[in-house]
């Protein structure tokens, strides 16, 4: 089915339309990779960011960058009909699925960290240690690997041997040729999504209750934590939609080919690019400490140096003026 879809896709899409869409995607991906790379560099350069929330944020940036790069390569291969052997394609798609699950699970961990910081402030320093954070990250990767690994093994067991010698245009649909395998993957992802959404909603409710009883001094930080949870919830919804995209797109092929083409391109922008724009917003711009460090490295310290030079110059003129006056 995947090869049939792609052959029809190439026959109806004009080269100019394909090039324009790919060019827009490359620009968006390039901008986000640059921003994420700059933020990762900022995290690595500053020892003050070795806190749980910044470590989880750094993992989110790394995972989002890897996912955008891998999915972008898949999109390019799909548009230009680049054939790949089935076995490397399955490995590539399994890696994509793994990273796609790690991303929303990290968001859930970030929500839990905010819950501990706001609702359990006295225990936050003992719970949110770098050691516990790295253990949590290891657990996230191990749990995220369960569903993709099971699908990978099942595909090799139940797909006809002759199919493993073929070359296909590598997309996730290539692993969903057997209906019950596709249904099993969809059911597992839906169950995982319900669990993660329940955790996010419960943390939001508990933080909201804590905000009502918080003192005026803690009101601002608690309200900021609520807004962070809301943003992470929106990210979670968009990330999980990206995992369910193959099930949305495949039936559309039987309805209208042009509709299939437009939906696939729109889904890439909405459910892959857009959620990755929110991560820099949550911590890169809303967090004052990280924003100041990011601004310093973004401009190579030029602005900070200029402001310091102006301040020192004013101080010097002030001292000289006082001396002359005396």
A few lines on this structure:
By secondary structure, the protein is mainly alpha-helical. The protein has helices at 2-12, 15-45, 52-79, 86-119, 121-127, 130-144, 146-158, 179-213, 216-249, 252-255, 257-285, 288-298, 302-325, and strands spanning 83-85, 167-169. α3 runs parallel beside α6, α4 (86-119) runs antiparallel to α5 (121-127) and α9 packs antiparallel against α11 (257-285).
Describe the 3D structure.
By secondary structure, this protein is mostly helical. Helix content is 85%, strand content 2%. The chain is built from 13 helices and 2 strands, in the order αααβααααβαααααα. The chain has a two-stranded antiparallel ribbon. The longest helix is centred in the middle third of the chain and has 35 residues. The N terminus and C terminus are likely disordered.
Order of helices and strands: HHHEHHHHEHHHHHH
Strand content: under 5%
Please tell me how large the radius of gyration is: 24 Å
Helix run count: 13
Q: Kindly name the structural category.
A: mainly alpha
Query: For the largest beta sheet, what order do the strands appear in spatially?
Result: 1-2
Mean pLDDT: 77
Through-space gap between termini: 90 Å
The major sheet is characterized as: 2 strands, antiparallel
Helical content stands at over 70%
Q: How many β-strands, per DSSP?
A: 2
Please state the overall shape, judged from the principal axes of the Cα atoms.
globular
What ranges have pLDDT less than 50 throughout 5 or more consecutive residues? 1-13, 312-326
